[in-house]
Input
Amino acid sequence: MLVYDITERQTFASIKNWVSQILTHAESSVNKILIGNKCDLPNRDVQLNEGEAVAAEYGMKMFECSAKTNVGVESAFLCLTKDVKARLEAGGNGRTKAETVSVSPDNSHKSSKGCC
Output
């Protein structure tokens, strides 16, 4: 989830860098969605059509949400989880089915075979 604040253009301007980082450091098949947060606030600095254009440019789905009022939050999470499930079921996870990734408390990643 790439989340920007619709009341702060600078966060929106950072999306290109975030996508670049994902493309550099993540599996090519990783699921991504774009979220414009704080849609409950009246002082909008980024218009919906701008978010939609960036999402289309990078092949992402786009949602406007409000974490404060819970508008669109569940829809965004459900969409992303459905897309991830569909990708994994189709075998597009970039890993073998028996391989899992765990994150240690120091945030270092390691792969392990098996489920437990």
Observations:
- Residues 73-89 form the longest helix (17 residues).
- Strands lie at 2-5, 33-37, 61-64, 99-103, 109-113.
